[in-house]
Amino acid sequence: MPKKVKLILNPMADMGAAWRVANDLRPIVNAHGGADWSGTVYPTHATELARQAGLDGFDKVIAIGGDGTVHEIINGLMQVPPEKRPVLGVVPVGSGNDFAHSIGVPQRADHALSHALNAKPSLVDIGRITDENERQEYFDNTVGVGFDAVVTIRSHKLPIVRGFLMYLTAVIQTILLNHDPTLMNVETDQGNWQEEALMLVVCNGGREGGGFMIAPDAKNNDGVLDYVMVKKCSRMTMFRLVPEFMKGTHTRFPQIKMGTCKTFSVRSDRPMYIHADGEIFTSFGSNLKGLSFEILPEALKVVTG
């Protein structure tokens, strides 16, 4: 076990259930020689804690929370020079836990913590977003533009349902209330095109929303980004595609455009709604119309399954 371990807990993950889970994990931490605990209390706090952990010489940072917590922590770790950058471990106690799924860690929190404390890390790729105003952010799993960003925004406003059902409910709402195709001009290192589209997802991992297999073949250690675009289609077609996305069989439909690349930029004819790993990058009221992505191969050491 590394000499210095930082545990970063989001006590509000999974509607507050993470706090109770973390309390049950204390004996495991004590049995492994202890660790330094920190809890998040405001947005981007995990980013600050992770960055400081690297600068303070911690060998490993373990995220106890959901995809949002991991996203913030990665953005903190990527601000640390590579030679001082701690290893990342993940204990999935969020609503979707898609990054944890993509790296193959145990889904039970106690098993995941033991694994994060003891297993050897592997190098994984990290994506980077740059918008037209030069704002940059890192992502570990997926960035959605259009439809699935609106789904994310709506899911954050659902007070009762949790987990995959929360995202599925938001999907149905979005199909009914936000069926707005956008003209997108795309440039990649593999080619350029223009398309009226409802949804664009740029992927480092394959799953989002706790159970939608957006890019079934995506891997976070292959040095490329996968992209998935849903072309302009009817509401009925979108409803038809929902179960296909859940199974990862949507790739056979003509309304789906997919590919891989190392760089990807998109410009829209209207403001874009964007999420990064389930965290809102731009929301309603945004004027952002331009965005680019790139893959950073083997940028981070992560305890994988």
Features:
eleven-stranded antiparallel sheet; alpha+beta; about 300 residues; 15 strands; Tumour Suppressor Smad4
Summarize the structure in words:
- By secondary structure, the protein is an alpha+beta fold.
- The protein has two domains: 5-119, Rossmann fold; 129-298, Tumour Suppressor Smad4, CATH 2.60.200.40.
- It contains eight helices and 15 strands.
- The strands form two sheets. Strands 5, 6, 7, 8, 9, 10, 11, 12, 13, 14 and 15 form an eleven-stranded antiparallel sheet that branches. Strands 2-1-3-4 form a four-stranded parallel sheet, with helices on both faces.
- A hairpin with a 4-residue loop joins strand 5 (122-131) and strand 6.
- It is globular.
- Helix content, binned percent: 25-40%
CATH class of the largest domain: Mainly Beta
Count of discrete alpha- or pi-helical segments spanning 4 or more residues: 8
Distance between the first and last residues' Cα: 17 Å
Low-confidence stretches: none
Query: Tell me, what's the shape?
Result: globular
What is the CATH third-level topology name of the largest domain?
Answer: Tumour Suppressor Smad4
The ordered H/E elements are: EHEHEHEHHEEEHHEEEHEEEEE
Radius of gyration: 19 Å
Strand-pairing-aware structural class: alpha+beta
**Tally of structural domains:** 2
The whole-number mean of residue pLDDT values reads: 92
**CATH architecture annotation name of the largest domain:** Sandwich
Query: Major sheet, described briefly?
Result: 11 strands, antiparallel
How many distinct beta strands? Answer: 15
Q: Give the strand content.
A: 25-35%
